[in-house]
């Protein structure tokens, strides 16, 4: 498994699994759990969830999927911005731990920027870390200016990652955020790496993928995974989808294919506001 090294020196899988909308429909639960467990078996050991997803339903589902094998996975969860205060974050983290059925979250992210000052959130994350409730903390949906503000607060430089929207059709961060984070040694986590399956509608991409002996989703993931310092977290709710996505790790994109992708999905030529879903 390709890995990405966090600023702490810990290596995590470059390909993980997302869980947004999972755990919300009883009739899909069995398949979703089987998909997550199969993914862990294949080495997709990083699981991304959030207190927001199904208002805790996704965390509960993850808890069920990892029961008895907690040590095999690297768990990422997120706190709502309005819960990222001195007291509220401690309580939110405790609820997440209970739903996940674990003693410690590996990486705890601020889901997006809210009204609570970074200094207060970071101080609280550092306390949670000292208490052993979380091992690392990070952020999500922060643009370059937000990141600079974050790094200016005490302990702000301890940030382990910024999770942002990034896929073939959303390349805005290549202009500024991506190079800046790379320079600072902060890995990025690409969310919605399949553009929530909408990439499938792109006929020229389908043809290019087929010509290269891969599916659209494998091509989209291989395109992300060729970059160092980048973690991709596609969500898949069936064993078949998990297997297909896992196989992207073995797909290579040659220079000609990368150039064709650049023509279909041009890189940014100026700064754009950070996109989010
Ligand atoms: P993705 O880009 O991962 O796409 C998910 C969709 O693609 C689902 O409909 C899924 O279907 C489908 N899919 C996945 N693999 C395959 C396959 N091999 N063949 C066919 N269809 C496939 O979208 P998400 O928005 O879910 O993003 C991934 C994760 O990123 C989220 O689940 C969440 O954990 C995180 N995220 C974080 C955000 C943030 O603000 N920090 C915002 C958005 C997402 P099916 O489920 O049926 O397999």
Described by strand count, sense and barrel closure, the largest sheet is: 7 strands, parallel
Mean pLDDT: 98
Distance between the termini: 28 Å
Strand content: 5-15%
Calculate Rg over CA atoms: 18 Å
CATH superfamily: NADP-dependent oxidoreductase domain
Per CATH, the class reads: Alpha Beta
If strands are numbered along the chain, what order do they take across the biggest sheet? 3-4-5-6-7-8-9
Number of helices: 10
The total number of structural domains is 1
Q: What's the number of extended β-strand segments?
A: 9
Shape estimate: globular
Gross CATH architecture: Alpha-Beta Barrel
In short:
With 277 residues, the protein is α/β, with parallel strands linked by helices. The chain has ten helices and nine strands. Helix 1 crosses helix 2 (57-65) and helix 2 packs across helix 3 (88-100).
Task: Walk me through this protein's architecture.
With 277 residues, this protein is an alpha/beta fold. The protein is built from 10 helices and 9 strands. The protein has a 7-stranded parallel beta sheet with strand order 3-4-5-6-7-8-9. A two-stranded antiparallel sheet has the order 1-2. Helix 1 packs across helix 2. It starts with a strand and ends in a 13-residue tail after the last helix. The mean pLDDT is 98. Bound molecules: NADPH dihydro-nicotinamide-adenine-dinucleotide phosphate (NDP). The site of NADPH dihydro-nicotinamide-adenine-dinucleotide phosphate (NDP) has 27 residues, from helix 9.
């Amino acid at each position: 498994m390709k890995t990405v090294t966090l600023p702490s020196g810990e290596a995590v899988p470059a390909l993980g699994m997302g869980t947004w909308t999972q755990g919300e429909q009883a009739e899909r639960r069995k398949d979703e759990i089987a998909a997550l467990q199969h993914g862990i078996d294949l080495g997709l050991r990083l699981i991304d969830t959030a207190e927001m997803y199904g208002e805790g339903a996704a965390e509960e589902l993850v808890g069920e999927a990892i029961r008895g094998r907690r040590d095999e996975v690297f768990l990422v969860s997120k706190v709502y911005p309005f819960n990222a205060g001195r007291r509220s974050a401690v309580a939110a983290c405790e609820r997440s731990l209970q739903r996940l059925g674990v003693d410690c979250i590996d990486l705890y992210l601020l889901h997006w920027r809210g009204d609570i000052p970074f200094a207060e959130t970071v101080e609280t994350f550092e306390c949670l870390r000292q208490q052993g409730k979380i091992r690392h903390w990070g952020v999500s949906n922060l643009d370059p200016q937000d990141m600079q503000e974050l790094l200016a607060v005490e302990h702000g430089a301890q940030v382990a990652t910024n999770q942002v929207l990034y896929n073939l059709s959303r390349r805005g961060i290549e202009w500024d955020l991506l190079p800046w984070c790379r320079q600072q040694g902060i890995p990025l986590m690409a969310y919605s790496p399949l553009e929530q399956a909408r990439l499938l509608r792109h006929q020229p991409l389908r043809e290019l993928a087929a010509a290269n002996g891969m599916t659209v989703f494998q091509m989209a993931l291989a395109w992300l995974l060729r970059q160092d310092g980048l973690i991709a977290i596609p969500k898949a709710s069936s064993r078949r989808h998990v297997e297909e996505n896992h196989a992207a790790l073995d797909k290579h994109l040659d220079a000609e294919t990368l150039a064709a992708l650049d023509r279909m999905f041009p890189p940014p030529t100026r700064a754009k506001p950070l996109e989010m879903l």
